[in-house]
Amino acid sequence: MFSSQGPSLRDLAAQALNSVERGYDLLAPTFDHTPFRTPDRVLTATAEVLRPLGPFGAGLDVCCGTGAGMRALTPLCRGPVTGVDFSGGMLAQARTAHPDAQWVRADARALPFTEAFDLAVSFGALGHFLPAERPALFAAVHRALRPGGLFAFPVAAPPRVTSPWYWALAGFDAVMRVRNAVWRPPFVMYYRSCPLTALRTDLAAAGFAVTVAPLEGLGRREDGSPRCQLLLARRA
Length: 236
Hints:
By secondary structure, the chain is of the alpha/beta class.
């Protein structure tokens, strides 16, 4: 799974036994050499959907990690682009990789922005928020956007119950729940906690008008449905 430059199993164990913030601080130097970094094909497919909806002014990457999302966000925006994350270690890597962007350390549930951005994106971060935390997250993004601003993030189609991936993800989530029941601090990372219907409901409650677009660049399943969709939430 990992390159020679990636983390060892010991590194991953150390991450899993710490808080989310401290865990990503530890993993930051090798994070881009793991499968957990957002793949370029996801970034490209997202940009292809968003490009006809722009151009945009200022852009925000929510839970930016090491800044991979800037590869999609920067070309779409005429104004400055900003990444926000609560891991200082991840932000340090992002600053090195993308020195022209702005970087802010903050909790995504309490973003320090008001009507400052025209486009916000997020990649692979929602599993770090419990369902009860999503309203605060979406309200913070809504507040950070200017009227008419757009919040976009990809949502993968859930694997079928007959797929090995279904049971692998279910097993991972079960292990994480047991870990969090017996060990502190908690490490929140659940792969099956963000069904599309629930996300749409929470976004609408935060004041967004919500639509969905297929990410055609990522292909379709055997039944013709998209493998991944881009959730588009616009501040009215």
